[in-house]
Design brief:
Elements (H helix, E strand, L loop, with lengths): L1 H12 L1 H22 L2 H29 L5 H19 L3 H36 L4 E6 L2 E6 L8 E4 L9 E5 L2 E4 L1 H4 L5 E3 L4 E2 L4 E2 L4 E5 L7 H14 L3 H26 L1 H4 L4 H15 L2 H4 L3 H13 L2 E3 L2 H7 L4 E5 H5 E12 L5 H12 L5 H19 L32 E6 L3 E6 L2 E6 L1 H4 L8 H12 L3 E8 L13 E12 L3 H10 L4 E5 L4 H11 L3 E3 L4 H15 L2 E5 L5 H6 L2 E5 L5 H6 L2 E3 L5 H37 L4 H19 L5
Parallel strand pairs: 11-18, 11-20, 18-19, 20-21, 21-22
Antiparallel strand pairs: 1-2, 1-3, 3-9, 4-7, 4-9, 5-6, 5-8, 10-22, 12-17, 13-14, 14-15, 15-16, 16-17
Helix pairs in contact: 2-3, 2-5, 3-4, 3-5, 4-5, 4-10, 5-7, 5-12, 5-25, 8-10, 10-24, 10-25, 12-24, 12-25, 13-24, 15-16, 19-24, 24-25
Length: about 675
């Protein structure tokens, strides 16, 4: 019972291929029967080959004729094949029936190959769909309940066990594991995830159990957006293909008119016999049809889209694959694009009588009550320090590696308790700082002006270091303590400075290499657009190798810059991730969004999405675009070259119908296979 099911499934999935194989088999048997003199058997087998091999083409051709009132190549091929068979029966030259069957066979093979090019991207969609399980384990009232993915609601808590697929996007509430995100982002190495990290539907959980909170509807998950984008890319034809489609409709009409003239005038003008005239007219219909030209573009672009999807680059349609290869200038947003968009502790500098850990621990005690991004960065650095030193109790004499906590100066080994005590009576002053009581001391964290209200003076050495860090684009936070906390302004100025903490949005590790690669690819202008201040903007630009910077921009200002670049360079790309980048992404010739850190608005507006937020994929996308354009041009030259050669040969009388079929359909197969090169 299993084998018939498998056979049925195979024939359904490979219908074009099965039809071509059966057509070829019947053609061979018909030819063999004709060779043996079994005319009746041959005339039974060959029409069957016509029907099986040409049914789909005839159906599509007649549908186009009656519904759209247009002629297409499929119908012309069927007419030519039937004409050859009719001529063969009329003249009793039955090899002409073989010629018509060969035409249908090669046309069927060409159609099957084109179908496989489309199926590669369809398979990528099906594989994406299979990545999401149908159900999820929801933790409800102290026990697990299995519910359908479609029934998940924002706020639900789901449990994912080791080795299972993540059912929907969410935030980790508890647990630690490594996740294989290759199917979604193209990253080859598993990524460590713990409390607070976002996980994506379709990624594979490693060795740890996770409890995840659903923070967006299941239909809005990253993988569902990927599926919609790939489906959209398949259905939308690029401008070049639309031009070819319009050209084909007019060209087919010209072929029919010329074919009718060739089938009627030569006997009167040049004295040809009617058999030769009709034969040459049928050969003309075959060799002049633009099958190869029609296959010159879409298989190539679909292959490029499938290739990009495997590498974490999503092209929303083939037009963007065409355009990305023509880009002459590119603009980058700063925050979240060239940088990670997440503030981190860059450096801790302590006063002489304190250690870096003293400074960080004191700041963390009051910032633990804050939701400010700077406070979160301090808490993250302090927590990482505790985790690392707790794991290395036997090696406290060694300095903390930079890899463990992102600070340039190494923290001195913490003495005594590694953890900190959360402050009480915490009061945050927006734009200035935060104060609180920890271990019977008042802790003050904030900018220099705010801290000066609590201390007698700021150490000159620390002040100079702070100014230097600020000139580099870092945000400097001062940390002080007051042993005698008092609401009295006179009493509270008895505090002393413990040190400073430099906070920075770190530049992405691959940003500089990406800029260098783009320059080598011949991009004429690379600029950075940001709403940040000049100092920070130039600091990041210098680090990544960008010479031209536009700072302190509003969203409409970014739009104006893109327009000016387009006036000078025509095809301009914009790379961004935020809502404020959406107008510029829409205006740019090619908008490129960061898939993980990007906002929903940016993802919807952009033309290309980098699923893993890996900037180096921009250069890969450009290479794909340029290579696709090169292959398309090669295919068009080959297609037109074959048509011209075959037409000349037909008018000179040097080719017969089988040679015309082989030359015409051979060029179609060759062009289709050439387009499939981009699948590699």
């Amino acid at each position: 019972m299993l084998y018939p099911q498998r056979f049925t499934q195979f024939t359904r999935e490979h219908a074009d291929t099965v039809a071509a194989l059966l057509c070829g088999l019947l053609l061979f048997l018909g030819w063999f029967a004709l060779h043996l003199g079994a005319l009746e058997l041959a005339l039974l087998l060959l029409p069957a080959a016509y029907v099986i091999g040409g049914y789909e083409s005839a159906r599509e051709g007649l549908t186009t004729l009656f519904k759209e009132k247009e002629l297409d190549v499929d119908l012309l091929m069927i007419v030519a094949a039937i004409g050859a068979a009719s001529l063969g029966l009329w003249r009793r030259e039955y090899y002409l029936i073989i010629d018509g069957a060969i035409l249908i066979l090669i046309f069927a093979i060409s159609g099957a190959l084109e179908g496989y090019a489309m199926q590669r991207t369809e398979q990528s969609i099906r594989s994406l769909m299979s990545l999401t399980p149908d159900t999820a384990r929801v933790w409800h009232q102290g026990r697990e309940e299995e519910v359908a993915i479609s029934q998940l609601k924002v706020g639900d808590e789901i449990v994912v066990k080791p080795g299972e697929l993540i059912p929907t996007d969410g935030i980790i509430l508890s647990g630690y594991s490594t996740l294989n995100q290759a199917a979604i982002t193209g990253e080859s190495l598993p990524v460590e995830k713990t409390i607070g990290a976002e996980v994506f539907a379709g990624t594979l959980n490693g060795y740890g159990a996770l409890q995840i909170k659903v923070h967006k509807p299941a239909q809005s998950s990253l993988i569902q957006r990927v599926i919609r984008l790939v489906e959209q890319a398949q259905t939308e034809a690029p401008p070049s293909q639309e031009f070819i489609d319009r050209f084909e409709k007019g060209y087919a009409k010209v072929i029919v008119v010329v074919g009718l003239l060739l089938a009627t005038l030569p006997p009167f003008l040049w004295g040809w016999d009617w058999e030769t005239t009709i034969y040459r007219a049928l050969t003309f219909l075959v060799v002049a049809s633009p099958c190869a030209l029609m296959a010159a573009i879409m298989p190539t672009l679909l292959s490029g889209i499938a290739n990009g999807a495997r590498q974490g680059i999503l092209f929303k349609n083939g037009a963007q694959l065409e355009k990305i290869g023509k880009v002459r200038a590119i603009a980058f947003d700063k925050t979240g694009t060239l940088t990670t968009g997440q503030l981190q502790v860059f450096q801790v500098i302590s006063a002489s009588e304190y250690t870096e850990w003293d400074v960080l621990k004191a700041a963390a005690s009051v910032e633990s009550s804050s939701e400010h991004p700077i406070g979160k960065a301090i808490i993250q650095a302090a927590g990482e320090t505790v985790r690392v030193f707790s794991a290395r109790r036997s090696a406290l004499a060694k300095p903390l590696a930079e890899k463990a906590v992102p600070v340039e100066s190494k923290l001195l080994n913490p003495k005594g308790d590694l953890d900190w005590v959360g402050a009480i009576e915490v009061q945050a002053i927006p734009g200035q700082g935060i104060v609180g009581i920890a271990q019977e001391q008042q802790i003050i964290v904030g900018n220099a002006v705010f801290v000066q209200k609590y201390v007698t003076n700021l150490p000159e050495e620390l002040r100079e270091m702070a100014q230097s860090l600020e000139q580099e684009g870092k945000t400097v936070v001062w940390v002080a303590k007051n042993p005698t906390p008092s609401p009295s302004p006179q009493a509270r100025r008895g505090g002393e400075v413990m040190g400073v903490i430099a906070i920075a949005d770190h530049v992405r590790s691959q940003a500089a290499a990406t800029i260098t690669r783009l320059k080598k690819l011949g991009i004429e202008q690379i600029v950075m657009l940001t709403g940040d201040n000049q100092e920070t903007a130039h600091s990041v630009a210098k680090a990544v190798g960008i010479d031209r910077v536009y700072a302190q921009l509003l969203p409409e200002d970014k739009l104006d810059v893109i327009r000016r670049l387009q006036q000078q360079y025509q095809t301009v790309a914009m790379v961004g991730d935020g809502i404020n980048d959406a107008p510029a992404l829409a205006q740019a010739s090619v908008g490129i969004a960061m898939g993980i850190s990007g906002s929903d608005v940016a993802l919807e507006t952009a033309d290309i999405v980098l699923m893993a937020d890996r900037l180096e994929k921009i250069a890969v996308a450009m290479h794909l675009g340029r290579r696709s354009q090169s292959i398309v041009k090669q295919n068009i030259v080959v297609a037109l070259g074959f048509i011209v050669l075959l037409l000349v040969g037909n008018f000179l009388g040097n080719i017969n119908l089988p040679i015309g079929v082989i030359g015409h359909e051979g060029s179609t197969v060759l062009v289709t296979l050439s387009g499939l090169r981009l699948l590699k």
